[in-house]
Amino acid sequence: HLATSLPLPSERDHLRPRIDLIVFMIDIKSKYSLKNVEASLAHVDPSFFLGKVYFLVTGVGRVNYCSIDTNAICKLGEAYCSPVLFCELELEGIRVATAQRLLRILQICAGLVPGVSALSFGLLMRKSADD
């Protein structure tokens, strides 16, 4: 399910499936994109940040068109203890690999991968990004 911002409308709460993962997409070419994500973060329960929130930064292949400093996005990931993934959606191979990666992350967050929790995987992702 996709939403342009949070909070989600409450009129269909009883029909909404369980939320296992939230991926905030930030278009590096749009300052509005970052501001929208920052405003939406206030509507996420703090306990959900324990391995079930990721930031996906798109447009990183176009450095000349960047409106957002990548350090600001990395600091956002640090502040919310959530991994930041960078990708270029205009390239099919990277788009497919990113989709497969997000699907695997979703499987982990939904508890469908035995022996791996969302929290331990999120910490592993953050650790590998620091190296």
Automatic annotation (TrEMBL):
Entry GO CC: chromosome, centromeric region; nucleus
Keyword terms, alphabetized: Centromere, Chromosome, Membrane, Nucleus, Transmembrane, Transmembrane helix
Domain of life assignment: Eukaryota
Transmembrane segments: 105-125
Subcellular location per the Swiss-Prot or TrEMBL entry: Chromosome, Centromere; Nucleus
Main location per the UniProt record: nucleus
PANTHER family: CENTROMERE PROTEIN M
Protein name: Centromere protein M
Gene symbol of the encoding locus: Cenpm
